[in-house]
Amino acid sequence: MAAARVLPSVSLREATQRKLRKFSELRGKPVSPGEFWDIIAITAADKKQELAYRQQLSEKLKRNELPLGVQYHVFVDPAGAKIGNGGSTLCALQSLEKLYGDKWKSFTILLIHSGGYSQRLPNASALGKIFTALPLGNPIYQMLELKLAMYIDFPPHMNPGILVTCADDIELYSIGESEFIRFDKPGFTALAHPSSLTVGTTHGVFVLDSPNCLKHKALEYRCCYRFLHKPSIEKMHQFNAVCKPGDFSQQDFDGGDTAYLHLDSEFVYTDSLFYMDYKSAQKLLAFYEQIGTLTCEVDAYGDFLQALGPDATIEYTRDTSNVTKEESELVDVRQKIFHLLKGTPLNVVILNNSKFYHIGTTEEYLFHFTSDSSLKSELGLESIAFSITPDIPEGSAERTCVIQSILDSSFSVAPGSVIEYSRLEPDVSVGENCIVSNSYIVTKAVLPAYSFLSSLSLRINGHLKYSTMTFGVQDNLKKKVKTLLDIKSLQFFGVCFLSCLHTWNLKVTEELFSGNKACFSLWTARIFPICSSLSDSVTMSLKMLNAVQNNSSFNLSSFQRLSIEEMLVYKDVEDMIAHREKIFLESIQMVQVNL
Length: 595
Fold this sequence. Notes:
Elements: H1 8-26, E1 39-44, H2 47-62, E2 71-76, H3 84-100, E3 108-113, H4 143-150, E4 161-166, E5 169-173, E6 188-195, H5 197-200, E7 204-208, E8 219-229, H6 233-238, E9 268-277, H7 278-291, H8 300-304, H9 330-341, E10 346-351, E11 354-358, H10 362-371, H11 373-379, E12 384-385, H12 394-397, E13 401-403, E14 406-407, E15 412-413, E16 418-420, E17 423-424, E18 428-430, E19 435-437, E20 440-441, E21 445-447, E22 451-460, E23 463-472, E24 491-492, E25 495-496, H13 497-503, E26 528-529, H14 534-550, E27 561-562, H15 564-570, H16 573-594
Parallel strand pairs: 1-2, 1-3, 3-4, 6-10, 12-13, 13-16, 14-17, 15-18, 16-19, 17-20, 18-21, 19-22
Antiparallel strand pairs: 4-9, 5-11, 6-9, 7-8, 8-10, 22-23, 24-25, 26-27
């Protein structure tokens, strides 16, 4: 009798839940050799971020939230020019060599890139994207635990080498029960996911050899002829990267799965994480030690993977259209990497029943945690995760996300909002599509729709202080202008920033901005008051926001103020962790009292 057909979404959920259960069993317990990673390394952009990551890893290990018997490291980029995640990879290889000598050639290593300042998701700026909380698990999972859970099956089927991934994405996949993804071929091996051509324009796209059989399976191993980095749709067609609907069979996979694809449209295979064997890693390390100091941004995907495969050519090294900042030496470094890696194979693991999620912007964060029924179902995300809340109306509760927070019974929240690590007292109303993070609101307050509110603990001249950043979730904190006259083109909560400064009685001078005076942005604007208590800092920022909303005045000129850039310099990680721990313990006590 034929096996019952399992829908792709169901098999994806079942596979994901199995991985979560397997990881949960390892939390706080010593792992056996070969059962888990030998080394887990996280990259950091600077010494301050490195310290924050080390502190959080230490706390997680104390609370038995991570497997034991594993070497956890944080590797910091050298001071000076930004070097990109490719440069961070090279630095990490050098750090491994210094720590372990040639012993690391026998290790399985997970390298997680988390060195950015998360300007597009600022509630992750202080403590890092890899420590972003998820509405899942007890204790609450953060992105680090989720990564470790989703990759739980990799180490036992991996030759010594390094798996490279980013902190703000999630890869879910389902394969046959008796199958495993193997990372055992020489060179590089990358995961590939079926995606629309539009998605392909913002990712890496694989140009693959022909499949061995007409019937596609959930798991396939293919060779990549060429890797295209963020190509145009025209370029995808030019290099035969596009798969047509007829290429995909509607037949069942082994075990009853069907491909998770819209079979009526063209698609491409896009990248996520990749593995490199020890020999390839040694090549890159030798190259890095030869050039000495790196002074340009190198992309681990665009600059390493484009050099691989038999059809790779040197032309991409001169294409700087996808580069954030064009340095004169970038082309030279790219060409050296190309010649170094040319001829190295790029093996591809095709996961036809898989999904790739990115959670690196406020919009993605809000959508995936509140409105995305698929991710909620697959991961088992909760609307209320380890929190004390009033009875939220049924329609709102399904599209609301509350993570490790305590909300008063008279609190109200509109659909589409996320509240994490916060305490909100009576008569607080949160509008739709808001983010409230690490905050304490004690007074009656109405947070307008699309508001962002996130508080930081600060240590200034030995004294504990607080500041709360606020703006609109759609504001562009990365946008820079070159002159003070151009400040009017910046927008704060959809309002001309120059008008906001007048509302707050702040003069437009270079002193209003921190850092490099060659450009100005919301990120560097010194507009957020420093206060002696967490609740006062939230109150001040809410008054700022309300003044802009209501076109009324609120004088900020007498306050000592910081930019977001400066907040990250003064952040007190220990106090922020203590704030979260206090909410955690109070939640437990309140649950016990109510039993």
